[in-house]
Automatic annotation (TrEMBL):
The UniProt record lists the keyword Secreted: yes
Location relative to the cell: Bacterial flagellum; Secreted
Source domain of life: Bacteria
InterPro entries hit by this protein: Flagell_FlgL (IPR013384), Flagellin (IPR001492), Flagellin_N (IPR001029)
Organism field: Stenotrophomonas nitritireducens
Name of the protein: Flagellar hook protein FlgL
Chief subcellular location: other
Protein family membership: Belongs to the bacterial flagellin family.
Occurrences of domain Flagellin N-terminal (ranges): 9-141
Keywords from the named record: Bacterial flagellum, Cell projection, Cilium, Flagellum, Secreted
Presence of keyword Secreted: yes
Length: 400
C-alpha cells in the first residue's frame, strides 16, 4: 500500500493544529476570566458532579441556619413571656401572704382580689403572645389563632398538643415553643403529687398548712379522710368509710398515716374533716380566680375566716406549683437555645470544610493557568508560522 503525502493533506493538518491551539486558548481565557478551573461539566465530569453535590449541601446548611434563626426567635420570645409570667406569679404569692394577715380589712382584701384579676388578665395576654410573624407562641401546631379564650369566668385552650421539631443542623433537631396547655393548663395541685383540702362543712378553726408524702412509708395513691372525733383526737377513714387508724392531735405537729403527712394549725371541732388524695390538675387562670374569690369571702366569723385561710393556703400551694411549671418550661427552652448555639458551630465547621473542598475542585491556579496560556500562545504562533510557510511551498519552485 502506498501512502501519498499531498499538499492538501498538509494544509488540513496545519489548519486542524491551529484550531486545536485556538480552542485551548479560548478555554484558558474563560478559566482566567471566571477564576474557575471547571468551566463546563465536560472539563471534569467527576469533579463537576461532586461540586454540585457540595453546592446542594451548602444550600441545605443555609436553610438549616434559617430554621435555627426562626426557632431561636420563638424560643427567645417564649423565655421573655415566661419570665414575665413568673414575676406576675411572684406578685400573686406576695398578695396571698399579705391577705392572710388577720389585721387586713375586708376592703383591703377586695382590693387585692381586684389586683389578682388584673394579673390574671396580664397572664392571659402573655399566654397569647405572638412571634412577630402573626403566629401564636403557645398554640402548638394550631398557632394561627389565639390559643387561650376567656369566657364565663374561665379560660379555655383552643390550641393543640403538638410541639414541633425543627432541624437546625444535619441530623440535629430542637423542639419549638411548648404548647400552652403544658405550661398554663395542666398544672398539678398540692405538692404536685398529694393534695388535700378542708371539708366545706367544717366549723372549727383548724387550717391545713402543709401536706406531702411520708418518706418512711409507701403511699398507694388512695384517698383518705382525716376526721376529728374531738378537738384533740382524730381517726383515719378510707374511701369505703372504714376507720383504719387514729391518734391524738397536736397543733403544728405532723399527722402521719398510710404513707402521707399532714400538718394542721388551730383547733378543730368534732366532725371536722380534711380530705387527702392524689393531686389533680388546675389551670393557673382558675387558680387565680379561686384565690380572688377566697379574698372576697365573708371572713367576719371565725368559721368564715378559717375557711378563707384554708383556701388561701391551698391556693398558695397551687401558685407554687404553677411557678415551678414556669421554671421547668424556661429550663426546657434554655436547653433548646443552647442546642441551637452548638448547632451553629457545627454548621459553620461543615460549611468551612465544604467550601475548602469546593475551592480545591473549582478554583483556578492562576500561576499554572497563565503559564499554560503562554505556552499555548507560543504553540499557536508556531502553528501559524508553519502554515504560512507551507502556503508558499510548491513543486513548481523546485523545477525552476
Amino acid at each position: 500500500m502506498n501512502n501519498r503525502i499531498s499538499s492538501g493533506m498538509m494544509y488540513d493538518q496545519s489548519v486542524f493544529l491551529m484550531l486545536a491551539r485556538q480552542s485551548k486558548l479560548n478555554h484558558l481565557e474563560r478559566q482566567l476570566a471566571t477564576g474557575q478551573k471547571i468551566v463546563s461539566a465536560k472539563d471534569d465530569p467527576v469533579a463537576s458532579g461532586t461540586a454540585v453535590g457540595m453546592d446542594r449541601i451548602l444550600a441545605e446548611l443555609t436553610q438549616l441556619g434559617s430554621n435555627a434563626a426562626t426557632a431561636q426567635n420563638r424560643l427567645g420570645l417564649q423565655e421573655n413571656a415566661l419570665a414575665q409570667a413568673g414575676e406576675l406569679l411572684q406578685r400573686v404569692s406576695e398578695l396571698t401572704i399579705q391577705a392572710n394577715n388577720a389585721a387586713l380589712s375586708a376592703a383591703d382584701r377586695k382590693s387585692s382580689a381586684a389586683e389578682l384579676r388584673s394579673i390574671r388578665d396580664s397572664l392571659l395576654s402573655l399566654a397569647n403572645s405572638t412571634d412577630g410573624n402573626g403566629r401564636f407562641l403557645f398554640g402548638g401546631a394550631a398557632d394561627g389563632a389565639a390559643p387561650f379564650i376567656a369566657a364565663g369566668g374561665s379560660v379555655a385552650y383552643n390550641g393543640d398538643q403538638t410541639q414541633r421539631q425543627v432541624e437546625i443542623a444535619p441530623g440535629t433537631f430542637v423542639q419549638d415553643a411548648l404548647p400552652g396547655s403544658e405550661i398554663f393548663m395542666r398544672v398539678r395541685t398540692g405538692d404536685g403529687i398529694v393534695d388535700g383540702n378542708a371539708a366545706s362543712g367544717n366549723t372549727g378553726q383548724a387550717v391545713l398548712t402543709d401536706i406531702g408524702r411520708d418518706g418512711s412509708a409507701n403511699w398507694n395513691g388512695e384517698s383518705w379522710t382525716l376526721r376529728f372525733t374531738a378537738p384533740d383526737t382524730y381517726e383515719i377513714v378510707d374511701a369505703g368509710s372504714n376507720v383504719v387508724g387514729g391518734g391524738t392531735y397536736v397543733p403544728g405537729e405532723d399527722i402521719v398515716f398510710q404513707g402521707l403527712r399532714v400538718r394542721l394549725n388551730g383547733t378543730p371541732d368534732a366532725n371536722d374533716e380534711f380530705n387527702v388524695g392524689t393531686a389533680g390538675n388546675r389551670d393557673v387562670f382558675a387558680t387565680l380566680e379561686r384565690l380572688a374569690q377566697a379574698l372576697e369571702m365573708d371572713a367576719s366569723t371565725l368559721a368564715g375566716r378559717t375557711a378563707q385561710q384554708n383556701l388561701l393556703q391551698s391556693s398558695l400551694r397551687d401558685v407554687a406549683r404553677a411557678s415551678e411549671k414556669l421554671i421547668d418550661s424556661r429550663a426546657s427552652g434554655g436547653a433548646q437555645l443552647g442546642a441551637i448555639d452548638n448547632a451553629a458551630s457545627l454548621r459553620e465547621a461543615n460549611a468551612i470544610t465544604l467550601k475548602d473542598s469546593l475551592s480545591q475542585l473549582r478554583d483556578l491556579d492562576y500561576a499554572e493557568a497563565i503559564g499554560q496560556y503562554k505556552l499555548e500562545s507560543a504553540a499557536l504562533q508556531a502553528a501559524q508560522t508553519l502554515f504560512t510557510q507551507m502556503q508558499s511551498m510548491s513543486l513548481f519552485n523546485m523545477i525552476r
